[in-house]
Amino acid sequence: MRIIGVTDIHGNIKMSHKLSEALPALSPDLLLVAGDITNFGGARTAERVLEPLLNVGTSLIAVFGNCDGKDVPSLLEELGASAHDKRVEVSGLGIVGLGGSNTTPFNTIWELSEEDIGSILERNYHPGDLILSHAPPYGTKADRIHSGIHVGSRALRKFIEEKQPPLVLTGHIHEARSVDTIGETLVVNPGPLFRGYYAIIEVENGRVRAKLEKL
Q1: Contact, 84 vs 122, CB < 8 A?
Q2: Does the structure show a pLDDT above 90 at 87?
Q3: Cα Rg for the chain, rounded, in angstroms?
Q4: Sheet (strand 59-63) strand order
Q5: 184 phi and psi angles, rounded to 5 deg
Q6: Residue 204 burial (10 A CB sphere; 0-12, 13-18, 19+)
Q7: Confidence check: pLDDT of 102 > 90
Q8: Would you say 12 and 215 are in contact if contact means Cβ atoms under 8 Å apart?
Q9: What is the pLDDT of residues 157-179, one digit of tens each?
Q10: What is the DSSP string of the chain?
Q11: pLDDT of 22-76, one tens digit each?
């Protein structure tokens, strides 16, 4: 299965259109969106951002980010695209979603305690599932801010160490565009789509490969 992974669109409809134009040539089976579809915008903005991607006809699964408005989760549910706090399957591939982020210093719209993050993962995950999480796991290339401090979720890190899912697709930390590993788990932060970044992910026989790309 070929997956196109994106995150942190932050309301940039121009980049959403640009990606939609590139998708036919990339021939993905699935598009995963790891949150922050808007920049503190609501459902109407999120719908305009996602519309070009939905119109391509590729299956789209998403979680909201900490900077998405309070009605964005409901929109994703209405679109049949939401994975937050649930397990969804696409062509036999299980995906567990985790929207929002762990606590930040900025008191953003959607923030979860580490306890809640751990609970969501534990009650939804089946062995072999992918994890789609706006927040990155702690202590990786994917959660390191400019100062060098790691700011990701410790509960997500602990869960990965214990369960070893094949892939965690994440975002949230714009400067932490990377591919990293925790044991056998591939951790991919494609970088923000509003800057033109995305990832191509290949899943085959339980093995995962990822390549960072730019529009």
Answers
A1: no
A2: yes
A3: 15
A4: 59-63, 30-34, 2-6, 197-204, 207-214
A5: -95, 0
A6: exposed
A7: yes
A8: no
A9: 999 999 999 999 999 999 999 99
A10: -EEEEE---TT-HHHHHHHHHHHHHH--SEEEEES--SSS--HHHHHHHHHHHHTT-SEEEEE--TTS-TTHHHHHHHTT-B-BTSEEEETTEEEEEE-SEE--TT--SSEE-HHHHHHHHHHH--TT-EEEESSPBTTSGGGB-TTS-B-SBHHHHHHHHHH--SEEE--S-TT--EEEEETTEEEEE---GGGTEEEEEEEETTEEEEEEEE-
A11: 999 999 999 999 999 999 999 999 999 999 999 999 999 999 999 999 999 999 9
Q: Which of 162, 167, 173, 174 is nearest to 204 (CA)?
A: 167
Amino acid at 184: E
> How large is the greatest C-alpha to C-alpha distance in the chain, in angstroms?
42
Q: Which residue has the tokens 């290949």?
A: 202
Count how many residues are written for the chain.
215
Domains of the chain: 2-214 (3.60.21.10)
User: What's this model's pTM, rounded to 2 decimal places?
Assistant: 0.98
* pLDDT given at position 30: 98
> Which structure tokens are listed for 215?
């529009």
Band (206; pLDDT cuts 50, 70, 90): confident
Average pLDDT over residues 7-34: 98
Measured from the Cβ of residue 86, the count of other Cβ atoms closer than 10 Å reads: 14
